[in-house]
Amino acid sequence: MKHLRSNLLLLSAALIWGCAFIAQSVGMRWIGPWTFDSIRCLIGGTVLFAARRTVLRKGDLNRDTLIGGLCCGFVLTFAMVTQQKGIIYTSVGKAGFMTALYVILVPVLSSFTGKKVTLQVWISAVIALCGFYLLSHPENFSLGKGERLLLLSAFLFAVHIMVIDHFAPKADGVLMSEIQFFTAGILSAVPMCLVERPAPEAILSAAAPVLYAGILSSGVAYTLQIIGQKDADPTVATLLLSMEAVFAAAAGYVILHEVLSAGELLGCALVFAGIILAQIPLKRS
């Protein structure tokens, strides 16, 4: 029963994250990307603060937690804003699958730090790259602005995960995430005030998608992941969380009526296949 409960919690987190692409797309009708990310991160940090004090009841601030939270927040700021800008120029479904490329990029980038990358991962990367090609206008052999931004976002999210891996062993995970959200929210507030200067009326108009992204995507989903991973198999947990890309495409079709071409659907399938292959442990005889 513990594993079933954990799997359901992780699948719920993936569903929330997948549908968050809808909120991110709709929210841009009224406010800019810096404004959206600043408000959602500040809300997410507040939700995590409340969860840490009531549900999780943990939080030991040490040097690694503080520095890790600040570093993660800095990288997260630019990962989120490039993703947010990329969504403007492409569909929700494509955005979900392109963002998921970070799963492949993490081990590839790790190879530059001396970690061994298996042949399985390289094959997965090639398969995902073929899928990315089909998703990015193969008819004219060029990447659109949205695809370029989302690819950069996937790269930055991969760097973000590597920063987390560096600090996580000696840090409090929930508290570090709380610090990263407040850091990203404050950093994003600077260009929000200097460049976008949103009107209060615009922020109120975007209240629903911003609250979804802040409360559910940044706060609740992360808490579900923390609780769910306690009793879940690591491989199963990663596979369930990678369903975020599938939920994003489904939500885009059902809610926004976005339809992908046959080539784009094949591209999504290849990206997802590459992601899954990279996470399945091969048995050795």
Structure overview:
- The chain is mostly helical.
- The chain has one domain (2-279).
- The chain has helices at residues 2-27, 33-56, 63-88, 92-99, 102-110, 119-135, 145-167, 173-196, 200-205, 207-228, 234-241, 244-255, 262-279.
- Helix 1 runs parallel beside helix 11 (234-241) and helix 2 (33-56) crosses helix 10.
- The longest helix has 26 residues, at 2-27.
- The radius of gyration is 18 Å and the shape is globular.
Sum up the overall morphology in one term: globular
Mean pLDDT: 84
Please give the number of β-strands.
0
How many distinct folded domains? 1
Distance N to C terminus: 31 Å
Q: What structural category arises from helix and sheet content? A: mainly alpha
Q: Helicity, in percent?
A: over 70%
SSE string, helix = H, strand = E? HHHHHHHHHHHHH
Number of contiguous helices: 13
Please describe the biggest sheet, giving its number of strands, its sense, and whether it closes into a barrel: none
Low-confidence stretches: none
Radius of gyration: 18 Å
Strand content: under 5%
Chain-wise SSE layout:
Elements: H1 2-27, H2 33-56, H3 63-88, H4 92-99, H5 102-110, H6 119-135, H7 145-167, H8 173-196, H9 200-205, H10 207-228, H11 234-241, H12 244-255, H13 262-279
Helix pairs in contact: 1-4, 1-10, 1-11, 1-12, 2-3, 2-8, 2-10, 3-7, 3-8, 4-12, 4-13, 5-6, 5-7, 6-13
